[in-house]
Amino acid sequence: MTIKVGDKLPAGTLKEFIEVETEGCSLGPNDVDVAKAAAGKTVAIFALPGAFTPTCSAKHVPGYVAQFDALRGAGVDEIWCVSVNDAFVMGAWARDQKTAGKVRMLGDGSAAFTKAVGQVLDLTERGMGVRSQRYSMLVVDGVVKTLNVEGPGKFEVSDADTMLKQAQALKR
């Protein structure tokens, strides 16, 4: 099943690497219950094929980091980056991309969430295994309000600027 506008996010757990211990968050990989984490919030979720890959590192993540304040101003409570990588890789990538306090870097190591939303990208022939399709969605209280799925090899509709326009339109 492919997720669509109006659907609830599927139940599942993503992993987040926490470098600085805070109340309720221990160091190291922590489970993020998707339903609980999205409840009562407006969340901009974007997913991509892989940490440290060219377009993802040069454009996708930096765009969301740069648009953090504008997205917050448009009513977005949190920004999540989801990739079929383990929490340790996502943590290292978060440091590299300077996402702290702006974008939650969530690992979907076994692609369970990616499969549940129907956004699997099979890059086995290119030596990269099962990955996530590049997409973004605006989620309000666990319900998908917008969904932007990229065509093969494209980066045109899942970017932060598109998400910002959609968040602003939803806020009106």
Automatic annotation (TrEMBL):
Domain of life: Bacteria
Keywords, ordered alphabetically: Antioxidant, Oxidoreductase, Peroxidase, Redox-active center
Enzyme Commission number: 1.11.1.27
GO biological processes: cell redox homeostasis; cellular response to oxidative stress; hydrogen peroxide catabolic process
Active site: C56
Catalysed transformations (reactions): a hydroperoxide + 2 glutathione = an alcohol + glutathione disulfide + H2O
Similarity remark: Belongs to the peroxiredoxin family. Prx5 subfamily.
Role this protein plays: Thiol-specific peroxidase that catalyzes the reduction of hydrogen peroxide and organic hydroperoxides to water and alcohols, respectively. Plays a role in cell protection against oxidative stress by detoxifying peroxides.
Protein's recorded name: Glutathione-dependent peroxiredoxin
Organism of provenance: Scleromatobacter humisilvae
